[in-house]
Write the structure tokens for this entry.
Amino acid sequence: MAEHVIETVEELRSSYGEPSERAVRKALDRLDRHCRRFIALSPFVVLASAGADGRVDCSPRGDPAGFVAVLDDRTILLPDRRGNNRADSLTNVLENPHVGMLFMIPGVDETLRLNGRAKLTTDPARLEPLAVNGRVPRSGLVVEVEEVFLQCTKALVRSRLWADETRVDRKAALPSFGQMLADHIGESDGERVDREIRARVRETLY
């Protein structure tokens, strides 16, 4: 039997119906006091971007709560900390400025969704206030807010993300990161990869 797929917005709406008035009206074009407070309490954000070819990437970003700076009601600044130099998100932004961001706060089931246009800055005046342990970010993403809204709790309630009883025993459930990475790239010594990764995290966290 052939798979039935939805191919038009009309089909989608026929199946799902229209969003409620409240769901439409909650989208803002600027940061109000609640959005600002949510960002100030968030130590973790997922950044979505896409390149010129349409390939989409999601990148986790984290630091102490409030690491994303609110410059004004329509502008935020996300510092780029040291990583593996793939620079996938930054490359995408140079090709396509549209980004999406999902802010999360540990223990809070709501999330904050923000969509906007980003540009890459290396301006010391913007980046120096975001230094950690004396290390200034090499760059940052200045994001112009186009749409921002609170997302309800259903996804996190269903997943029980913050519940202690759903925490996974890492050693029992998964190989180490080094072992998985070694398997992915065809190396034989996962323990060595783990040692190298731990050393790199200690030495290059900032």
Summary: DSSP finds nine helices and seven strands in the chain. The domain at 18-159 is CATH 2.30.110.10 (Pnp Oxidase; Chain A). Strands lie at 44-50, 56-62, 69-72, 75-80, 98-104, 111-121, 139-151.
